[in-house]
Amino acid sequence: MYTGTIISDLMAAVERAERLAEAKRISEQRELHEIFAMQIPIVEGDEILVGAA
């Protein structure tokens, strides 16, 4: 039976999806920031050879 709430239900579903997507984006940004913060800076003049010669 149609209760007339389909538009309200759809709008609520979209809002939930938007909130979840935003939370995921923020989480991924934090993770990337932590990964980049862990990077070891490469200083010019240090002769570090990687691989086989």
Structure overview:
The protein is mainly α. The chain is built from 1 helix and no strands. The protein has one helix spanning 6-37. The mean pLDDT is 82.
What topology does this entry show?
Elements: H1 6-37
Quickly describe the structure:
It is built from one helix and no strands. By secondary structure, the protein is an all-alpha fold.
State the end-to-end distance. 76 Å
Low-confidence stretches: none
Quaternary organisation of the protein chains: single chain
Q: So how many helices?
A: 1
Radius of gyration: 24 Å
Q: List SSEs in N-to-C order.
A: H
What proportion strand?
under 5%
The major sheet is characterized as: none
Tell me, briefly, the overall form: rod-shaped
Structural class given helices, strands, pairing? mainly alpha
Mean pLDDT across every amino acid position: 82
Number of strands: 0
Q: Helical residue percent?
A: 55-70%
